[in-house]
Amino acid sequence: MGCFFTVKRRQRWSLVTGIATLALCASTSLFADFNRLGQLQNKGFSISAEARLLDADAGANALLGSITPDRQLSPASVTKAYLSAAALNRFGPQHRFTSQLVSSADIENGVLRGDLVFEGGGDPGLTTENLWRLVQRLHLAGVREVEGALVVSQWRFGSVDCITTDRCDALTRVANAYSAPLSSAGVNFGSWCVNVAPAATAGESAQVGLCDSQTSLITIDNQVVTRPANSGTEISAERITDARGDVMRLTGQISTNATARDVYRGAGDAAETTAQVLMGMLNQAGIQVREPWRVSTSQPPSSAQRLAAVDSQPLQELLLRIMNYSNNYMADVLALDLVDTPQAQLRQAGLAIETYAQNLPGHGPLTLYSGSGLTTENRTSALGINVMLEDMFHQSSLFPSFVASFQSPANGVMRFIRRGSSTFQNNVMIKTGTLNQPFAVRASAGYFRTAQGRWGVFSVMVNGNSSTPYLSWSEVLDPLSLDLEAMILAN
């Protein structure tokens, strides 16, 4: 750690200015640790934190600050940094996941004489746009009618057992999108999207429909009322699964001059949702399917021929969404892609990431029950996270894709990280993790550049317990930003 000054030629440096600057330097060096963040321990919170420089010249001075760095705590969504590193090492930045339509049957005069099988490729970012391209390519292949059924094959994985209360409850009722069910054949992040727009006249029901289909694929219970201009818009949505299948129940109000709103809620079954969406597209394309759709966990026979295929975005682009938006569905699907055996479950996906980390010298223990971090049972240390971050830093071919998936506080999509000084805002790349139940978790990790242009890594996990109060992000990020700023300026 050091403090350096550059004096311009012919510029006089007064004694007072020099003393003041040296005092500031000494103060900065003195508090270039986790002194501020560490005060949360006085409120009963457990902390594992470490920050250090990465350049070889740092030597014994590499460590800038630490609080029980080898303590095992929950990292929440910082788990996604492990996932991203493991996936880049396994697949490479340009890897794409392929979803396809296959069949063992022959095509005669435009009629497919058997079942049409959608083979899910484990694409974490598969959307209706991809499915429409798939259907269009099937049409170009000459298929106009399917004598059998549409079969959605999720033989790679799905349906995946729920391991958290949120996801288990979401099997029948859910008011969010992050608890969406998992499948290698899922579309639109395992969620339904409903568009809500005001009616022309106040007092009438709002106009609602699916975002990606004119066909009524599910029941929409619309109780949203249109109100006069500037009355405010408040919409509550819940997906319920009953004898009718998935039902989207909407309540609230929307102003006549409000813009249309898209509302996302996790589906009851990801593969069944894909079957419904794909059937609607086949009908719109004029391709008749005679038998009802069904879902299968069987792999298509080796005799099946590809009729149409669509590739995902490159992995490095998928990681931007997984990390920037902390998309839990995408993260867990990508983690399941790391498992080679069929019908993988989340613990197997966690073990695959653990295996990657165990090959990093000096990492220490790691326990992962999911790749998304959507469980407090995941455990690692600040020391371990930094070992992983440093290993990625030294991989020249992977590091650009990896670090790009972190957020700059000054420009990131998550507004709550836009705090602190310009030094913190512009010299840090960060991934955060948040959980509130059964106890509070606030975690963050990433890279920073010092005032001298040196690279550093930092990892912080703050965990509560059943007795600690609610922990806001400001209580963590405000002191952390000051601690990191001091480290950046002092080096």
UniProtKB/TrEMBL annotation:
Top EC class for this record: hydrolase
Its EC number(s): 3.4.16.4
Gene Ontology terms for molecular function: serine-type D-Ala-D-Ala carboxypeptidase activity
Superkingdom per UniProt: Bacteria
Keyword annotations: Carboxypeptidase, Hydrolase, Protease
Similarity section: Belongs to the peptidase S13 family.
Stated name of the protein: D-alanyl-D-alanine carboxypeptidase/D-alanyl-D-alanine-endopeptidase
Organism for this UniProt entry: Halomonas alkaliantarctica
